[in-house]
Amino acid sequence: MSNTDADVLVLGGGLVGTAVSYGLARLGLRTLVLDEGDIAHRASRGNFGLVWVQSKGFGVPEYQRWTRRSADEWADFSRELLSETGVASGHERPGGVTICLNEDELERRSKRMEQLHLEAGETQFEYEMLNPAALKKLIPAVGPEVAGASYTPYDGHANPLYTLRGLHAAFIKHGGRYIPNARVEAIAAAPGDFKVRAGGKVYAAPKVVLAAGLGNQVLGAMVGLNVPVRPVRGQIIVTERMQPVLNMPTLMIRQTVEGTIMIGESREESGFDDSTSSEVVHTLAQRAVKTFPFLRHARIVRSWGALRVMSPDGLPVYEQSARFPGAFVCTCHSGVTLAAAHARHYARFVAEGALPPELGRFSTRRFDVQAAA
Ligand SMILES: Cc1cc2nc3c(=O)[nH]c(=O)nc-3n(C[C@H](O)[C@H](O)[C@H](O)COP(=O)(O)OP(=O)(O)OC[C@H]3O[C@@H](n4cnc5c(N)ncnc54)[C@H](O)[C@@H]3O)c2cc1C
């Protein structure tokens, strides 16, 4: 009998941990997820649901490529989850726009899109800058006050809660084990040998994957990994259900398959405070009404705040511990967008025991360089 509890222990059962766990279980590895539970901050349950390409990787082509790879695989990934579990993620990829309300915004946007285009290399990144008339043709509901928009065909959206549910169900179907209310308190680490204490028990495995979102900083220190993630709050408003009116997502406003309109998302340094504030909700609503005047009459049914898992440069953090090989970290602030890449590729890298050079740009070594500078 094996004296380990699993081939891999995954610490954290949000979108990132569950995507990686599903991928590992699908490859036949005995995988066990330890998850803190409802008292933890959980970005996966409070996010906006974009599978978004057009704002990822300015100056970092590796991130643009990784994001694109995931977004390109999302439709097939979504079909796979549906056939594995019967859970539909609601994924659609009609393209997407970032709407600008004044000339300054439009000029900045245009420069950034051109930069992405130039940096894309073989991946290629096609985009269009739309004037108000062209934008109105694409999305008739847009109002007269917009200055224009950027468009790419690569963007889409999904229901993040159904995605998480589908991933979880697929993980269990492939023999994965999920232990809730199991906050990891300590890790006794040796190369290829990890003993993790959680919920009053100790679990042993030759590999661990840190996927605990904002919990990764503390857990990283236990396995020789520097993971300086911090919370960045986003607030979101949701309206009542409406007739289909938005045929594609925009960066800040999208209509869900159920008909509600989601309006987001702010960015605030608020520490671990995930409450909402009337000032931010007001600003979001004002911008939304300017963009889509029909929203003036929409009833808001809910608003919430949630905490992004943000690294100092906004890029994902992927690394295997040099001191304790077998310990990996996987964390990012675009866990919906990157779900396909995490399930299909990151999981395989963990199974094979090494991260490839293409992920080198996301190593924790960059934080040592920043600290030295
Ligand atoms: C407002 C907002 C909007 C967003 N919009 C988008 C979007 O449109 N598109 C997109 O791609 N991404 C978006 N994101 C980001 C996305 O939600 C996150 O990247 C993703 O959810 C991160 O998932 P995670 O599993 O790393 O973290 P979490 O969802 O936070 O999960 C971490 C898990 O780890 C567990 N945990 C923590 N500490 C421990 C411990 N010590 N022991 C055991 N378990 C532990 C917790 O219980 C939790 O279940 C948004 C985020 C926010 C906040």
Walk me through the topology.
Layout: E1 8-11, H1 15-26, E2 31-34, E3 50-51, H2 61-85, E4 96-100, H3 103-119, E5 128-130, H4 132-138, E6 148-152, E7 156-157, H5 160-173, E8 177-179, E9 184-190, E10 193-198, E11 201-205, E12 207-210, H6 216-222, E13 230-241, E14 253-255, E15 260-263, H7 278-291, E16 300-310, E17 317-320, E18 327-331, H8 339-352, H9 365-372
Parallel strand pairs: 1-2, 1-12, 2-8, 12-18
Antiparallel strand pairs: 3-7, 4-6, 5-6, 9-10, 10-11, 13-15, 13-16, 14-15, 17-18
Helix pairs in contact: 1-5, 1-8, 2-5, 2-8
The structure holds flavin-adenine dinucleotide.
Flavin-adenine dinucleotide binds at residues 11-17, 34-37, 40-44, 46-50, 52, 183-184, 211-213, 215, 219, 234, 236, 265, 306-309, 331-337.
Outline of the structure:
The chain is of the alpha+beta class and 373 residues long. Helix content is 32%, strand content 24%.
Mean pLDDT figure:
95
Determine the strand fraction and express it as a percent band: 15-25%
* Ends distance: 50 Å
Instruction: Give the second-level CATH assignment, the architecture of the largest domain.
Output: 3-Layer(bba) Sandwich
Biggest sheet: strand arrangement: 8-2-1-12-18-17
CATH superfamily of the largest domain: FAD/NAD(P)-binding domain
Q: What does this molecule look like?
A:
The protein is α+β, with helices and mostly antiparallel strands. It has three domains: 8-48 and 161-229 and 313-372, 3-Layer(bba) Sandwich (FAD/NAD(P)-binding domain); 96-153, no CATH class; 230-310, D-Amino Acid Oxidase, Chain A, domain 2, CATH 3.30.9.10. The chain has nine helices and 18 strands. The strands form five sheets. Strands 8-2-1-12-18-17 form a six-stranded mixed beta sheet, with helices on both faces. A hairpin with a 2-residue loop joins strand 9 (184-190) and strand 10 (193-198). Helix 1 (15-26) packs parallel to helix 5, helix 2 (61-85) crosses helix 5 and helix 2 packs across helix 8 (339-352). The protein starts with 7 loop residues before the first strand and ends with a helix. Flavin-adenine dinucleotide binds next to helix 1, strand 13 and strand 16.
